[in-house]
């Protein structure tokens, strides 16, 4: 059976798509006219084969969907009317309580449950999050991603994973660049320390490649626990010693590219993905595409070709 195709709402954040001159202007538009923001995204997807969406950080977040439609059920009906559905929601680090703060656990759980309740009513069952970012290399005192740190993260993940499971939602972890779940070793350590009944993986082919890793090899090692994956291309491995501050995401952007224009081995990735529990969804991630329709069509075609095994 052919998979459904999906994309992250960030695909639609490019100012050019909206006829605007900045990302801030896009955010302002979405606040001013949340309904119009979502309707244009939904209508645009009708020109592609993409039928699933992953909500992300503002303006395409849970709160924006609620402002636009009033309730998860109403949002779901608006999607249903266009043959669309919610696949997942992504929790960005700046958009949620900090996992490094020991006294934040009640707030972390409450935030995750709020999102899980939305997902359950909207017809989705996957909450995607990540681990905190690393600090800049050379920072004093140094911050080590060691067994003690990962054990703390695993404890929080178990608590959150169990909490959202009561809403019928799975918790999956994304392999974000310059985060503490980036290198292949990070991923292996975290997955070893977590219970597979409550903690799942959402590997990102681009971000793992940026760390100099092999995303297909990661997928093969953790096949039974991959609930979803982000299909995204990379131009080259990135400088692992970039300054980790508010500008880090902007500086990662030049290393991210549309599917088929980078160095990811899509045949190996597709083969690995086809064996996972999340094989029924191909989520094409395109950060701020100026022409989302063309980019999604190209990404869909590449994914189909890779999954078919065609050279």
Question: How does this model look, in words?
Answer:
The chain is 43% helix and 13% strand. It is an alpha/beta fold and 311 residues long. Helix 7 (147-165) links the parallel strand 4 and strand 5. Helix 6 (105-122) crosses helix 7 (147-165). The longest helix has 19 residues, at 147-165. It is globular, with a radius of gyration of 18 Å.
Quick gist of this model?
By secondary structure, the chain is α/β, with parallel strands linked by helices.
The chain-level structural class is: alpha/beta
Coarse shape: globular
Weakly predicted, low-confidence segments: none
What amount of the residues lies in strands?
A: 5-15%
Look at the structure and give the mean pLDDT.
95
Helix content: 40-55%
- Count every helix, treating DSSP H or I runs of 4 or more residues as helices: 13
User: How many strands, which pairing sense, and closed or not: the largest β-sheet?
Assistant: 8 strands, parallel
N-to-C series of helices and strands = EHHHEHHEHEHEHEHHEEHEHEH
Cα end-to-end separation: 20 Å
Can you list the strand order of the major beta sheet?
Answer: 6-5-4-3-2-1-10-7
Strand elements, count: 10
Walk me through the topology:
Elements: E1 4-8, H1 15-18, H2 23-32, H3 34-45, E2 50-55, H4 62-69, H5 72-80, E3 85-90, H6 105-122, E4 126-129, H7 147-165, E5 170-174, H8 184-193, E6 200-202, H9 205-210, H10 215-221, E7 230-231, E8 233-234, H11 248-252, E9 256-257, H12 266-273, E10 281-284, H13 292-308
Parallel strand pairs: 1-2, 1-10, 2-3, 3-4, 4-5, 5-6, 7-10
Antiparallel strand pairs: 8-9
């Amino acid at each position: 059976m052919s998979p459904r195709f999906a994309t992250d709402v960030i695909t639609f954040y490019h100012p050019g798509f909206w006829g605007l001159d900045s990302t801030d202007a896009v955010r302002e538009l979405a606040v001013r006219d949340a309904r119009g923001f979502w309707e244009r995204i939904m209508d645009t997807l009708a020109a592609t084969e993409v039928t699933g969406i992953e909500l992300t950080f503002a303006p395409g977040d849970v709160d924006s969907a609620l402002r636009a439609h009033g309730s998860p059920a109403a949002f779901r009906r608006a999607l249903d009317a266009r043959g669309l559905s919610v696949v997942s929601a992504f929790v960005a680090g700046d958009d949620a309580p900090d996992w490094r703060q020991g006294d934040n656990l009640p707030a972390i759980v409450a935030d995750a449950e709020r999102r899980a309740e939305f997902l359950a009513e909207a017809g989705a069952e996957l909450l995607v999050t990540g681990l905190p970012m690393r600090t800049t290399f050379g920072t004093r005192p140094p911050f080590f991603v060691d067994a003690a740190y990962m054990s703390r993260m695993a404890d929080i993940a178990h608590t959150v994973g169990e909490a959202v499971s009561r809403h019928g939602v799975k918790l999956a972890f994304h392999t974000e660049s310059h985060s503490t779940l980036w290198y292949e070793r990070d991923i292996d350590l975290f997955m070893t320390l977590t219970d597979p009944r409550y903690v799942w993986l959402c590997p990102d082919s681009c971000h793992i490649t940026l760390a100099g890793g092999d995303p297909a090899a990661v997928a093969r090692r953790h096949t039974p626990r991959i609930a979803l994956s982000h299909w995204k291309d990379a131009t080259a491995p990135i400088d692992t010693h970039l300054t980790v501050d508010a500008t880090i995401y902007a500086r990662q952007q030049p290393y991210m590219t549309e599917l088929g224009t980078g160095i990811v081995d899509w045949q190996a990735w597709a083969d690995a993905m086809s064996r996972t529990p999340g094989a029924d969804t191909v989520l094409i991630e395109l950060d701020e595409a100026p022409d989302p329709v063309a980019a999604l069509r190209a990404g869909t075609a590449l994914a189909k070709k890779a999954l078919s095994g065609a050279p």
